[in-house]
From TrEMBL:
Pfam families: Glyco_tran_10_N (PF17039), Glyco_transf_10 (PF00852). The chain crosses the membrane at residues 12-30. Residues 173-342 form the Fucosyltransferase C-terminal domain. It comes from Owenia fusiformis. InterPro entries: Glyco_tran_10_C, Glyco_tran_10_N, Glyco_trans_10, GT10-like_C_sf. Its EC number is 2.4.1.-. It is a single-pass type II membrane protein. This is Fucosyltransferase. It is found in: Golgi apparatus membrane; Golgi apparatus, Golgi stack membrane. Belongs to the glycosyltransferase 10 family.
Amino acid sequence: MYKAHSKRRCRKIIIALVPAFCIVYVFIYMQCPLFNIPTPKNPAISTKKLFLATPMFMSRWHMNFDECPVNDCVTTEDFYAADAVVFHNYEIQPWLWWYSTFYQRPPNQKWIFFGQESEVRTAWDSASLNNIFNWTATYKRTSDIVVPYGGYTRLTQQEQMTLRKKTFDYARGKSKLAMILSSHCGALTSGRWELVEELQKYINIDVFGKCHNTPCPEPCNIEEMGKQYKFYLSFENSRCEDYITEKFWGNALGSGEMVPIVLGGYNKTDYSDVSPPNSFIHATDFKTPRELANYMLLLDKEDALYNEYHRWRRTHKVFKQKIVNKDCSFCKNLHNATKFEKHSIHKDLHTFWNRQTNCKVINLPSDSFHNAVISYTRYLFGII
């Protein structure tokens, strides 16, 4: 009797919980960016439609093609009407499983692997993504759609003529040596904070951001801050192939007009291949942090030497990749008839996006520094 009563009670509880579960599920379902993307009433036949299959950094997102040279693209909430389905790598699971399991993929639909964070910051096994995606869209130069964080271009002849008539001293008015602005705290596989601590034994470095309880001065204007500092520590959270972010393009070379001390990419050539000539100082060019600190102090005393790292500004200018530029890259490639009609599949995405072969840890001579980073890296790769 008691068991029968218990079963009936459990059944009632389950029946009562099901509607509640459905309500919560529908609420989440409706909040997801996938289901809040406006669809045009009468899109042209040539219009390319994109379906955003995942959130981006756990938030809804959208694409805007209004300012693009090729702008005949829209986002849609109709999976089967989409010419392309975009998966953001940070949240790719379980969304990929969902669409692969419950949706029948149209034969001409392009599935795009979209990534802005490095392989190290991706918590899943990329081997499970082989033979799924048609295109890749990341900061890596080997991507099908290259969406870097920035770049540089040559000034026009008129702009160069104007600059030749002016005298520039980028050291003038800069009374402070170096700064870093960052929100990612704790141990990182790049050894960012370990290197900062080593350098602080020899030079003054002002650290701004959540990590050291020193907020960026309001308003947080990197251009104004750059007028005070000569160097910006453009240290990435991971050292992976081609991974060079806005810390380099925007904060240092761009708005801040500071000389970047860089720690990122897989090799120094990741920077030298894509940046203006003689525009940065790579931390790994020096045998020890002390040697790097001494070189920074030398440049601080010798304005002529310091200004050599700004000479490129007379012939080139940098730009920081805006969100709209990324969207334009998607639209432009979808309208490339030859590329779109060609059938392609990434049979080995694991090689393309592999943190164990495409990323590494900085190796500085300081034993405590080196061992701490190596231990953390082994720990990280062991659990992810």
